[in-house]
């Protein structure tokens, strides 16, 4: 019950901002969430031996998102300064090999959290972007919720035992079915960029599959850090990164999927 109430308490305001607020307010919502996720990611890789500073990684992510929003030359300029900062940080590490490895993982986190969050912001700006964001969130959330409860109820075949022992094949399939069902229910109502039910089915399956892979990717990082959750800020869920890990991998291809539709 705590898990459900926490999800509603966080999801309802987010959907309200998406639906009713101007894009710039949605931008700042994404920035705040991404800063929290990046802070947690830096904590995870610190447990793996990286001598980084949490606020530096979080600010890198925020800078990347704002530069993508600004457009033009700004993303390239921002990435140049961010990569330079990460290299300088790696040079100060006592162990050079660990410093270099940590720099690489920091760049991975920047692209994973900051890059995906930047494209989520851009989705809001495409034709029908408000509806597309609702579709994306609903499909990923339905997938996550159904995979969790179906797995706990009838799951017995392990999906990835060495990475995430709690995930099951049955839960994974249940999540995909739920995501498709929600996608079909929403596409006719939302009318996303001329997307047909057939394309909505394809999109929901891809989003569901990628969100599950994203969940496993974060589980891999947590396993390396010997942590159960990325944080403790959300009762029943863990950290912010634990809640958006699937979204971070599903959002980028969905953005290009929508751009293709718009171009067509």
Number of helices: 9
Low-pLDDT segments: none
Distance between the termini: 44 Å
Radius of gyration equals 18 Å
Helix content: over 70%
Q: Give the averaged pLDDT, no decimals.
A: 86
Large-scale geometry: globular
Helix/strand order, N-terminal first = HHHHHHEEHHH
What is the makeup of the main sheet? Answer: 2 strands, antiparallel
**How many DSSP E strands?**
2
Spatial order of the strands forming the largest sheet:
1-2
Number of domains: 1
Assign the structural class, choosing from mainly alpha, mainly beta, alpha/beta, alpha+beta, or little secondary structure: mainly alpha
Beta content comes to under 5%
Report on the structure:
79% of the residues lie in helices and 3% in strands. A hairpin with a 3-residue loop joins strand 1 and strand 2. It has one domain. It starts with a helix and ends with a helix. The mean pLDDT is 86. The protein has a two-stranded antiparallel ribbon with strand order 1-2. Helix 6 crosses helix 9. The protein has 264 residues and is mostly helical.
